[in-house]
Amino acid sequence: MRKNRLIVLALWILALVGISISGGPVTYGFFFAVTLVPVVSIINIIAVVTKYRIHQTLEGKYFTSNEPIPFHFSLQNETFFAFPSLRVKFFTTFSTVNDIDDTKEFEIFPDSGITKKTNLICKYRGIYEVGFKLLEVRDLFHLFCFTCKNPETLKVNIRPKLYDLDNLKTLSISKLAKSTSQSSSDFPDVISREYQEGDSTKLINWKLSAKNQKLMVRTLTGDTQKSVSIILGSQRDYMDNKIFIPLENKLLEIALCLTNFCLKKNTPVNAFYMQDTLHSHFIQDSTTFQAFYDDLSIMQFSPDFKNENTLIALGENPELFNSKLVIFILPQWTVHSQILMEKLNKYNIATKAYIVCDSEEGYTQIPQSQVDISVLTSEAKLEEEL
After folding, report:
1. pLDDT digits (tens, 9 = 90+) for 90-129
2. What is the rounded CA–CA span in Å between residue 291 and residue 256?
3. Which residues contact residue 304 at a Cβ distance below 8 angstroms, ignoring those fewer than 6 apart?
C-alpha cells in the first residue's frame, strides 16, 4: 500500500514537472488523471463502507465453553459496483471461528457475496463478544485502508464446561471415606442448612432464618451422611478480562468437576461462595447438581467479594465443621486460607486445596509442608492434570 502511494506521488510530481516545462493537453490530461486517482479511491471506500451488508447468527440457546457452536456468516454486495478488496476480522481473544481465514482478502462483485456455515468455539465461560469484529476496506488502487467496527456484535453467555472424570490424580479416594472428625462444644451436633424442596417444615430454624433472610432447616449430624465441602473464591483481582476470564473459567470448571466426581462416589457436596452474601448449595443428586451448575453459570466475580471475608465467615460456620473433607478452590493462597485449614485440621477434618494462578503471586505464601495443595494454571487441561 505504501509502495502504491509512492508510485502515485512520483507520477503526480512527474506530471507537475511536465506541465511546468511544456504544458499541452496530453500533459495536463495526465496530471489531472493522476490527481483524480486518490479522489476516486476515497470515493470508492466511502461507497463500500456505506453499502456493505454483513449477517451473522449462532444456532442454539445455551452455549458451553470449548464446544462447537453452529455459526452462519455472510458478507453481501447489494450494489451495482464491485467491492475490490475486503478483509473480515473476528474476535479472537476468547473465541475462534473455524474455516474462515481472516487474513484473506475478498473481492465481491455486484449482487453477490460470500456465505459461510461453520462452527465457532468459545474458549471460556463468561459474557463477551464473538464473531465479526471489524471490516478492513481497501480501494481499487490499494492506496488507502479504512477500518470500520461492527455496530451490532454478537454477545454470548457461555457456560463452563463439565468434565466427567472417573479418577483424579490430585484427590485421594481415601479422603472421601468416612470422617473421623471429633465433635466440639463450639460446633454442636444440631446444625442448619438452607431449606430445600421436600424438607419438613418442622425442621425450620425460624430464628436463624430471620437472621439470614432465607429459610434454614436443622440437620442432625448423626442422621445424615457427612458431605464434602467446597470453598470457591469469587474475588476478582484483575479488571482486565484478558487475564481474568481464563482464571474464572478454570475455578468454576474445577468446582463442577470435583462436585460431579463426589456425586459419582455417592458423596454429597456442600458448596460455599460469596456473592452479595455467603451462598451455599447442598448437592446430593442430579437435580440439585443441575441447579448448582445453573447458578455457577451466572455467578459473578467482583473485587467486593473478598475471599478473606468468605474464609472468615466459614471459620464460624458449624456446617463446614460437619464435613468429612473441605476443598479450597482459590486464585491464591493467603494467611486466611492457612488459618482456616489449620482450624479444620485441629478437628481432624481432611483438607485439600487447588490454587489457580498464572503468576508467582498466587502461591508465594504456600507452605512447603503439611498442606495438600495442587497449583494449576488457567490453561490447565483438567482431564490430564486433575
Report:
1. 998 889 888 887 778 888 888 888 888 999 999 888 888 9
2. 12
3. none
